[in-house]
Hints:
By secondary structure, this protein is mainly beta. Helix content is 7%, strand content 53%. The chain contains four helices and 26 strands.
Amino acid sequence: MNWLKKTLADVAGTQEPDYGPSAIQPVTKQAETKPYTELRSEHLKWHAMESTCVETQTFYFTTDEGVTCMAQVIYSNVMGVRTTCQFNTKIYDHDGPGKHQWCSDPLSNHGFDEPRTGFYADNVSVSLSEDGTTYTIKSAVNDDNICNLTVKRAAPGFMAGENGTSFFGTDPKNPWGSMWHKFWPRATVSGTMQTKKKTYNVNGRAVFIHALQGMKPHHAAARWNFVNFQTPTYSAVMMEFTTPSSYGKTVVNVGCIAKDGEILYAGCSNSVKHLAATTDPVSDWPEPKALLCNWESKDGKSIEAELMIDLPERADRVDVLAHVPAIIKNLIGGVVGTKPIIFQYIAKDKAALKVKEAGNETSETGQLFSEATFIS
């Protein structure tokens, strides 16, 4: 019966059997002996798998003027049958939900440069400099948001453990799926996003994340938490996913505390808790109202950090299936119990990051961008 369920899940995207927690080899295990690995340019190559996958490069921007925005390339493949690429941008309006500048455009004639660290398509390019320190993002694919941006790394990039990867499958030597995230936790951004109404000067802080879900997304994770907190001195980043019950509801959390020029801590000994929540009447998911985030070094360094915040009114509630390529929508839209919703929050100077270095504690206010995603 499990074989039948697995075969059906592979083809139709339905729920997988309950394999249990032994069917995932999380990157948290690697991090027990090697907390993180610094990124080199070759780590940032596009994999562009020919089997089912969703691969993304996402840039989050916190401008000096207090505006939050993002740019993203999505490469998706379903069962090796069809590949689609998408370019997304979003400029958040702090006056409330429903007023954001959102663009999501399918791309034509996509490809990669020779080192495979750069992506291009008609009217879009995202390229990495030869020295591996700078991304240039240019897009004229949508007149509602013309992008000309430069992102420069301000601290080393990292991935958790040896290779940043969690593997899925009952045979560790022959996994059938994978998940990884690679981070630039602290970077600068300069340039513009030009809409029909206004040209935004996008100058400030940036976070870059290159991610791969080498399997059907709703099979890999049932829930996500993402935290990006930027202060004048520190960048605190955390990405957490919880697997469906088929993999034992295993929690995998990767995080980092960085300053200009250095990583103070990176690894998997982090946690994020929803201290309060209310039921969202539209989606029926528990919408978070308060967060407690902790980072703590376990490799002999005396580094601890804490962020506790009462969340403001959400910046947006995103129905994922309304914004993803049709082929992904068709893949997961009919699965019982699957209703992907993202609650997004932005807060400036509403909370302080407390950081302890070698027994000395400092506290700085900053700007938060956070997401809580519920899938199944």
